[in-house]
Amino acid sequence: MSARIAMLLVLAIATEGCNRVAPEEVATQGVVPVVIATAQTGTIRGVVTASGVVAPAPGADFTVTPPEAARIAEMPKAEGDRVRRGELLVRFEIPSLTAGVASRHAAVEGAQARVAAATAAQARARDLFERGIGARKEMEDADRELAEARAMLAEAQASGGAAATLAGRTVVRAPFAGVVARRTKNPGDLVEPGAAEPVLRLIDPARLEVVASVPLADVLRVEIGAPGRAIVAPDAAPRLRVLSRPAILQPDTSTAPVRLAFTGPSRLPVGTPLRVEIEAEAHENVVIVPIAAVVHEGEETFAMTAGSDGKAHRQAVTTGLANGEHVEISSGVKAGDSVIVRGQNGLPDGAAITVSR
User: Fold this and answer.
1) Distance between CA 56 and CA 217 in Å, rounded?
2) What is the C-alpha to C-alpha distance for residues 256 and 218, in angstroms, rounded to an integer?
3) Among 35, 84, 121, 130, which one has the highest count of C-beta atoms within 10 angstroms of its own C-beta?
């Protein structure tokens, strides 16, 4: 009886083993639908990507600060107001400067009076000397007095000019037409010259640019005049043109500022963050595939090709330049090969496929 039971167990195990399918056969027995594209020979241009911000162009940004401790007497423009060139922005009240100008003016008038008196005295002393009535010493003393008076006048005039220049800074007018971008104070406020924030900031919204922080490794790939674009939104990408790149790179930083101009009008506010794409070097007569064809797994880069045997083949590739649509293949795939651009994720080497373009 025990022998019969043992025989039945052996038959059951054998039957189960015959019905079991190897894991490899399960994974590959289905036909996987994929989409393919043809690797082509062509030209590809690299793209330098960086973060950027909208900023006023040089000369299109003006800040108002007091020349010394002062009270704001007048400030007619509010934040957001448009300003014409020459319009009043701020008038400061600085009593010490006003008193200083009056004092210097009085000193100039006194020096002028002394010069006039010394000139008349010199003329009289010279006339008496030439007529033989006056002494030479009196004439020489008159000449010396006139020279000293003229020197004092020049000093007073210089001092008065400096005081007038400083006093002129109490009235600040717009150096260009623009918009008040920021206003931090009001009439009646007391302000200090070393304040962290300016009293008022004026910008010209018609002269804006983008300052991009380009990685140091990519700075030399950027050429003056190269086209670019500012990625603000999926449907908004204003065109740009490279104006300048730094002549000296700072080794203690990871990026360098590159300035780009808008090629057309822009309504982006100052301070708007955005992504910048700048066209770089071009490689001609190279193998190009859609960027979706290249797969990265850890340190390995490969593409799946569709063979004439109806199967997918995994090919290790070396890539070169890439842009948003295509990538250069230096090795692993040749022109004319069919590469899988959809359906290759998780596809094993040698899997049966059905293809479409």
Assistant:
1) 27
2) 9
3) 121
In the block, tokens 């009593």 appear at 95
Residue 123 has phi, psi (to 5 degrees) of: -60, -40
Confidence tier at 165 by pLDDT (50, 70, 90): low
Structure tokens at 160: 């008065």
Q: Which of 58, 94, 78, 86 is nearest to 201 (CA)?
A: 78
The pLDDT tens digits for 109-163 are 776 877 788 788 778 878 777 777 778 787 777 778 878 878 887 876 776 555 6
CB 161 within 8 A of CB 176: no
- Separation CA 319–CA 329 (nearest Å): 5
Q: What is the pLDDT of residue 96?
A: 66
Domain 48-58+206-283 has CATH 2.40.160.20: no
For residues 353 and 311, the answer to whether their CB atoms sit within 8 Å is yes
Alpha carbon of residue 299 to chain centroid: 34
Report the CATH fold assignment for 64-92+170-205: OB fold (Dihydrolipoamide Acetyltransferase, E2P) (2.40.50)
Indicate if the pLDDT at residue 83 is higher than 80. Answer: yes
* Amino acid at residue number 253: T
Euclidean distance between CA atoms 296 and 238, whole angstroms: 32
Domain 25-43+284-356 has CATH 2.40.420.20: yes
In eight-state DSSP terms, residue 257 is E
